[in-house]
Amino acid sequence: MGEDPSSSQMSEDDDRSPPLDPISSNKARNCSGSGCPSSSSSSSTDYIIPYPDQVLENVLENVLCFLTARQDRNAASLVCKSWYRAEALTRSELFIGNCYAVSPRRATDRFSRVRAVSIKGKPRFADFNLMPAHWGAHFGPWVSAMAKAYPWLEKVYLKRMSVTDDDLALLAESFPGFKELVLVCCDGFGTSGLAVVASKCRQLRVLDLIESEVIDDDVDWICCFPESQTCLESLMFDCVECHVNFEALERLVIRSPSLKKLRLNRYVSIGQLHHLMVRAPQLTHLGTGSFSSSEGNAQGDQELDCVSAFAACKSIVCLSGFKEIFVDQLPAIYPVCANLTNLNFSYANISAEQLKPVIRNCHKLQTFWVLDSVCDEGLKAVAATCKELRELRVFPVDPREDIEGPVSEIGFQAISEGCRKLQSILYFCQRMTNEAVKAMSRNCPDLVVFRLCIMGRHRPDHVTGESMDEGFGAIVMNCKKLTRLAVSGLLTDQAFSYIGQYGKLVRTLSVAFAGDSDMALQYVLEGCPKLQKLEIRDSPFGDSALRSGLHHYYNMRFLWMSSCLLTRQGCRDIARALPRLVVEVIKSDQQQVETGEYVDILYMYRSLDGQRDDIPKFVDIL
Amino acid sequence: MELQLGLALPTNNNFPVKGGLDLNINDFLCHPTISDGSSNKNKKRSFTQAFEPSNASAAVPRTLPWLLWNNQPNDDDEDDTKHSSRYTIMIKNEEDGLVGWPPIKSWKKETSFHIHGDGGGRRYRTVGINGGNSTFVKVKMEGVGIARKINLSQHQNFQTLLRTLMHMFDKCEIDSDNYKLTYQDREGDWLLAHDQDVPWRTFVRSVQRLKLLKRGD
User: Complex ipTM above 0.85?
Assistant: First the structure.
């Protein structure tokens, strides 16, 4: 069974080429190794070109360098063996969408000249405590393999991986030219690990910790950066819940003239922020830390200084932080509002009245994250000013189910009417209507990401009492570019019929507490050819629904189904039918003796290397 | 007789049981006199008296917790929006609610909007992404430069804690006699961490950081 051609599928994310099953891609291997007739010159029959492969491959390599998109590279690698080799030698950015889909050894064997690696681990539902702890996604085996294979590695991007301090130490020691480390939603490491990276990676330009859990080892990692001038361009540690040594931080900022992006954590007070801003007026991205005084009293002259500090930072386009915002200080940011393209207020518990003076200046805003404390009225203000808005996320202050929410279909519809260029929306609310959702489907035809979370489970249209089928149906019908969809509220099989019928570009679908029968899942699995990531919880889908997707599972990154109606036997049937699929049955409660009829969690994904060797006790691979 | 169907979290505090509905509702229904005085003054029969007059102390069947004896006769029915939602399980407190719903990351729930925490020690609680529950506190040993961290939730008594700490600092167990374990509590005071001085549970709840001091100080 072809190993190399099908592995090019493994690293695909956006599948722009038609899905290739492992069998058909064998065609590429049959191409003669002595030079593909289509690519060599047609007048070559009379004389023998010495080592035609080498010439061809040299030429190819020079051309392929210009191919950067991994979909293009994947396609190129399938032309013939020659192209395959040339592409493998010239790929410098490696993307692994599922760390268990391929072994580190296989990846490093194929691609030998990689400079940048991205690896994604746990499925997204792990963020919401649905995955038991210590499930896996360890960075260890990857860093060990890369330490040997890629001495010139410069960039590592990890998402939802378990990273230990030892892993970070190995990384820091193995790659002398290391430049960028970005850890998103990772855990397992602490300030000790950060200290090693800071001190040993002398060429470090980027150290971004985003939504990661960092253990406080009581190590002063900020002090560990080299004493000389640094190359730092980006330092983001807003998720690090430990005190930092402010004096050391200030000195670091002073000796980092290239620093453009700085995101502080909530232990940095507004006074300290001011000091730093004065030192780094060239900043383009700023995370403001707590945005309140450490002593609890607002000092008048402090506020004035902050205004001038913001005024001096003429380049700021991205503003975030406000972790413990002192609302009185908010006017300090007015000078930068006109230039902002990205504003994150998702930690700022502010009202509509407090938002309005800020937002009315943000004409260029493209990305806005906010709390629903601003109410429908605040959203109306956004709609009135932010005509360039591309992405909106509205998070709940109080994420419970059965309460009166401050935002509703009113704010939602206002946004749809004001922000016509909207491409991505994430909206948490307590009530919604089909009418508002339909309105958005008509007003915002460019929508690519539509995630609506009506927090009350099974909640119908607030006005009509009907299900939300028609609203979501309108979205898939009218938003022709839609690739990501998350549904909620009361939904019958009809909603899924719409998705299967119209959601031809949908790649990621999130379902919770929805649907009536197996048909719902079947509609989706049969109707959505581009489906890559499907995550379902607490929905009445059983074994026959699972079977209806057998034709498609090899084309998917993963399928997650928890608290559904799947039996162990049903999962086993799938595992038997598809040998290249890893079918994990996971127990969510480790104490519980398994007596239930239904499987707690099914997590399945294609893999070239079969079962992983690091399964914990609560996971069974069928 | 008035009954209130508990289809949603109560918005007003009708229930005699403090702090919202307690799932140990059987106790309440069987022993109505234990609740606050108002139900005594009220001449209406209690739930158990009404339904099982022959055996007032019979255990109420498990399905009945959804029904509550409500002493306010004038409450309206649930408003219409609630009827269509399926019942939600009454929860003791927010943290015991449905796992992972609504889908907000735990760290965002926990770390945002909190009042400035207690000044003293930085006690790092990891919940959420790990899925589990752990309580790390810093430990310093006198004479050793680098501090360590230890997960207290993995211990149940001072003996195992001390043994683990000794291993952590590369000391053999015999040496444990040469050190005394002290801890800093919420008020910032340093106290001896020992069975005779403080019960384990009290210790775990109040400890901010640990220090191992050489005996003979």
Answer: no
Instruction: Measure the CA–CA gap between A613 and A621, rounded to whole angstroms.
Output: 11
pLDDT at residue A310 above 50?
yes
Whether the pTM exceeds 0.90: the reply is no
pLDDT at residue A234 greater than cutoff 90: yes
B82, B93, B101, B154: best mutation site toward chain A, by most A Cβ within 10 Å? B101
Tell me whether A193 touches chain B (CB under 8 Å): no
The reported pLDDT for the residue numbered A602 is 96
CA–CA gap between residue A393 and residue A8 (Å, rounded): 34
Task: Please tell me whether residue A470 adopts helix, strand or coil conformation.
Answer: helix
Give the Cα separation of A106 and A103 in Å (integer). 5
CA atoms within 13 A on the CB side of A558: 23
pLDDT band with cut points at 50, 70 and 90 for residue B37:
very low
Partner A contacted by B111 (CB < 8 A)? yes
Mean pLDDT for all residues in chain A: 89
How far apart are the CA of B136 and the nearest CA of chain A, in angstroms?
Answer: 8
Would an 8 Å CB–CB cutoff place B205 in contact with chain A?
A: no
Report the residue from A126, A217, A349 with minimal CB separation from B149: A217
Q: Do A512 and B136 touch (CB under 8 A)?
A: no
Nearest to A347 by CA among A369, A329, A332, A330: A369
Taking CA atoms, A309 is separated from A123, A282, A296, A323, A383, in Å, by 41, 11, 21, 19, 29
B124 chain-A contacts, CB cut-off 8 A = 215-216, 241-242
Sort out which chain B residues have CB atoms less than 8 A from A241's CB and list them. Answer: 111, 124
Whether the per-residue pLDDT at A465 is higher than 90: the answer is yes
How many A×B Cβ pairs under 8 Å? 124
Mean pLDDT, residues A115-141 taken together: 95
Query: CA of A461: which chain B residue's CA is closest?
Result: B81
Shortest Cα–Cα distance, B80 to chain A (Å): 9
Token pair recorded at residue A561: 């189904």
Whole-angstrom distance between the N-terminal and C-terminal Cα of chain B? 71
- A197/A563 Cα distance (integer angstroms): 41
B116 in contact with A, Cβ within 8 Å: yes
Residues 6+ apart with CB under 8 A from B167: none
Cβ neighbours of B149 in A, within 8 Å: 190, 215-218
- Taking the C-alpha atoms of residue A243 and residue A325, their distance in angstroms, rounded to an integer, is 18
pLDDT of residue B14: 41
Query: Distance, in angstroms, between B150 CA and closest chain A CA?
Result: 10
Would you call B138 an interface residue with chain A, using a CB distance cutoff of 8 Å? yes
Which residue spans within A504-562 are E strands per DSSP? 508-512, 533-537, 558-562
Q: Return the structure tokens found at A567.
A: 């039996």
Scanning A101-203, the segments in alpha helix (DSSP H) are 104-110, 140-149, 165-174, 191-200
Closest Cβ opposite residue A127 in set B99, B105, B126: B105
3-state helix, strand, coil in chain B (%, to 5): 30, 15, 55
B93 in contact with A, Cβ within 8 Å: no
Look at B85 and A402 and tell me if their CB atoms are within 8 Å.
Answer: yes
Residue B97 has what pLDDT? 58
* Confidence band, pLDDT 50/70/90 cuts, at residue A46: low
Mean pLDDT of chain B: 57
Burial A178-195 (b: 16+ CB within 10 A, else e): bbbbbbbbbbbbbbbbbb
pLDDT digits 0-9 by tens, B154-209: 787 888 888 888 888 877 767 777 888 899 887 778 888 887 888 887 888 788 88
Could you tell me if A387 and A421 are in contact, meaning their C-beta atoms sit under 8 angstroms apart? Answer: yes
The label of the residue with tokens 């403001």 reads A288
Our CA-based measurement puts residue A459 at a distance from the nearest CA of chain B, in whole angstroms, of 6
Question: What does the pLDDT read at residue B53?
Answer: 42
